[in-house]
Write a structure and sequence with these properties.
The complex is a heterodimer. By secondary structure, chain A is mainly beta. In chain A, 0% of the residues lie in helices and 50% in strands. Chain B has strands at 5-7, 10-13, 19-24, 31-37, 44-50, 53-57, 64-68, 74-78, 87-94, 107-108, 112-116. In chain B, strands 2, 4, 5, 6, 9, 10 and 11 form a 7-stranded mixed β-sheet that branches. In chain B, a hairpin with a 2-residue loop joins strand 5 (44-50) and strand 6 (53-57). Chain B starts with a strand and ends with a strand. The chains are: A mainly beta, B mainly beta.
Chain lengths: 115, 117
């Protein structure tokens, strides 16, 4: 079975500073990787995904992530954050076998952007 | 185009009661999945349906059941509610069930907040 670890439960950062949210996964087979964002009292919005190809993936709102197979990581980065980026961020994996598209999520990282 | 819609938005039930949550996928999407998100945690997979057939089931008791209708909308039913069932229930839709890249792009609705007292 696969699992996702988000080591940082909270990340405070000042506006316009860079940020990295860490995600590590465990799986015995190849996986697809995702980052979702959840604003207060809302559902999840897909930020970006890695399915194949280039290991550097660009998403919406200026976010990007790099898939590192040897380190089983998929860290999310943004060079300059804005107050509006304050939200909960979830890393997730899906295994492209078994006939379904089930997502396994990490416990989330709360990004708090301060002035 | 409308995104994934869920109803109701909020729901308060008493222990032992039954609840039905509803989801309408994005137009053209044929697969619906259900997730439970307990406060402070990541979503947990409950069910996936594709073309009215169950494609996956998470580690939830038999009190949880679901179905998908010919128009691809879906219902999640929970019987004999427990306090621990209090959570945000999320529905996600995708173009297909698996086998293509597009099937792994899941789009989530706003959720139904269930409170069991």
């Amino acid at each position: 079975a696969q699992s996702v670890t988000q080591l940082d439960s909270q990340v405070p950062v000042f506006e316009e500073a860079p940020v990295e949210l860490r995600c590590n996964y465990s799986s015995s087979v190849s996986v697809y990787l995702f980052w979702y964002v959840q604003y207060p009292n809302q559902g999840l919005q897909l930020l970006l995904k890695y399915l194949s190809g280039s290991t550097l993936v660009k998403g919406i709102n200026g976010f990007e992530a790099e898939f590192n197979k040897s380190q089983t990581s998929f860290h999310l980065r943004k060079p300059s954050v804005h107050i509006s980026d304050t939200a909960e961020y979830f890393c997730a994996v899906s295994v492209p076998t078994g006939g379904g598209n089930k997502l396994t999520f990490g416990t989330g990282t709360q990004l708090k952007v301060e002035l | 185009d409308a995104g994934v819609t869920q109803s109701p938005t909020h729901l308060i039930k008493t222990r032992g009661q039954h609840v039905t949550l509803r989801c309408s996928p994005i137009s053209g999407h044929k697969s619906v999945s259900w997730y439970q998100q307990v406060l402070g945690q990541g979503p947990q997979f409950i069910f996936q349906y594709y073309e009215k057939e169950e494609r996956g089931r998470g580690n939830f008791p038999d009190r949880f059941s679901a179905r998908q209708f010919p128009n691809y909308s879906s219902e999640l039913n929970v019987n004999a509610l427990l306090l621990g069932d209090s959570a945000l229930y999320l529905c996600a839709s995708s173009l297909s069930g698996s086998g293509s890249f597009s099937s792994y792009e899941q789009y989530f609705g706003p959720g139904t907040r269930l409170t069991v007292t």
